[in-house]
Specification:
The structure is a homodimer of 301-residue chains.
Chain A: E1 7-10, E2 13-14, H1 20-27, E3 36-44, E4 49-56, H2 58-75, E5 91-100, H3 104-122, E6 126-128, H4 141-145, H5 148-155, E7 177-181, E8 186-192, H6 197-207, E9 217-224, E10 229-236, H7 244-256, E11 262-268, H8 273-284, H9 295-300
Helix pairs in contact in A: 1-2, 2-3, 6-7
Chain lengths: 301, 301
């Protein structure tokens, strides 16, 4: 894969987490393709859901995604689907994330292209969500998906929930799909030296955007039973604007009022290099540092 | 350049910093080659010296280096060379640095291959230095180079300074070359909130290896006249063993006794990604982090 080219990440969520044969068939279009790389796929039996992570150039990635969506529509019948995770379609949601040499504007345009094409090809209603949303009400996936598959047919009859692309009614077996562009999420958790879940909840409330905290931070308090500690579990929704170190330092400051120490942190899954460099630059006050100074960047560019 | 392949960095130093035509001819073998990439070249008129930075696969890089050395031998006459920087040959020193998918042991073997071939091809005496040195006395380039070009003929007559490869006497116009493998150097400077050079000297003395400090740290105090401050200027000779953050924290701790604050830092030139990740991991106490979690690493691998 040439780094001179544009690279997008795609993390489609499919409503099948149990049948290994079907899962294999859905994942397969991401394998062995020129200019597409399957990074990961994880299925969850309780959620009855499959999350695929792939990267690639726009042209090739679109082909793989569309092919996988076709397979999922053939194999998944939402009328028989049960699972703990909220869902509204066989392909529940398809986020595209700009990774390299591609702007958010381009990623949005790309997501709309894909949405239009799959809607036509598969007679599938599609909502544009996140950065691609045409109206503010559709930015938040939870709002779009509210009612889930079972109530979508009815919801779609109201004018404000007419799909952005495709037919004005649900696909009988595959339901509805949300497609959109978003920034990479960083799953960043900070561990506290206490087993008091109330403290984790209180700190989460203070650092997260919705209740007055950092603009690009979602947070909840959770208990790590085996470790006997609690954790502020965060989703950093735009690390370029709300840095990891800023949420870390804020959790530390909030913990102080309870006499509690921050005892560590963890990053779950992938993190863009820039988010870590930003952290190093902050803590050592490195002046005028540019990513071009990273040896690997010079090698790979 | 495929990342599945081994990548070495090479930073040859040539004794020509003034004649732009000659410099161009010496640099040229690193241009337009498959599997070799010229990252940088800097010439200094006072030093009368050229430093080239290139990366590539072993086979291709060896070809480029040998070609450039041949050109330098043709164009540079050390009998006429004047410059402030110590030097003993037309190609003064050729360090090889393992960058990717290549161990230090392999880099050492590679440097010996190159040394043997250039010695034979150009009738050039070569000392193996740094990690490639066959005897401890030859590890330190300053010791090898002592006496410089002008006294090398005499020095070489003593049994302990018989070259590792090539003839037992200097090349009449090109002198002697040191070749070896070494870890990447990181030039890391920490700025102090004072203009008192004695404080910078004292801190440098305490943090550097030679006078009792950190194993892989060289340090001097220098004055930044325009900024009106002083700086502890460090060469981190193995960032995998002496981390950047450790030297930073140690400078901070030493500065404290003088009531002086660390007011920033800088990284000059290139730095391996791992050195910065290591720093982020330290300051936020990120548990169980692996380089595989860096998105770009997954893309580029």
């Amino acid at each position: 894969m040439s780094d001179m080219n544009k690279i997008l990440e795609c993390v489609p969520n499919f409503s099948e987490g149990r049948d290994l044969d079907k899962i294999d068939k859905i994942v397969n279009p991401f394998r062995g393709k020129r200019d597409v790389k399957l990074l990961d796929f994880q299925r969850d039996e309780d959620h009855n859901r499959l999350v695929v992570t792939a990267i690639g150039g726009p042209v090739a990635l679109k082909q793989s995604v569309m092919e996988a969506m076709g397979v999922a529509i053939d194999l998944i019948d939402m009328r028989k689907h049960k699972g703990q995770h909220p869902r509204m379609g066989a392909i529940d949601v398809v986020p595209f994330i700009p990774v390299r040499n591609i702007s958010m504007t381009e990623a949005i345009d790309f997501s709309k292209d894909v949405a239009k094409e799959v809607a036509e090809k598969y007679a599938l209603p599609v909502y544009l969500y996140e950065e691609s949303a045409m109206v503010p009400e559709r930015q938040n996936l939870a709002v779009v998906r509210k009612g889930e598959f079972e109530k979508m047919a009815e919801k779609m009859k109201t004018p404000e929930w007419k799909p952005d692309f495709g037919p004005g009614e649900i696909h009988p077996s595959a339901g509805v799909t949300a497609i959109g562009a978003r920034m990479p999420l960083v799953a960043f958790n900070v561990n506290l030296g206490t087993d008091d879940i109330k403290i984790a909840h209180a700190i989460a409330k203070n650092v997260r955007h919705i209740s007055g905290g950092l603009r690009y931070c979602k947070a909840i308090g959770i208990a790590l039973k085996e470790k006997g500690i609690v954790q502020v579990s965060m989703n950093m929704t735009d690390y370029t604007k709300t840095s990891l170190y800023r949420s870390f330092e804020l959790v530390k400051a909030e913990a102080k009022r309870y006499g509690v120490n921050v005892i560590g942190s963890e990053i779950v899954g992938l993190v863009p290099m820039e988010a870590l460099i930003d952290t190093a630059v902050y803590y050592m006050g490195i002046e005028n540092f540019t990513t071009e100074q990273v040896l690997e960047v010079r090698i790979w560019e």
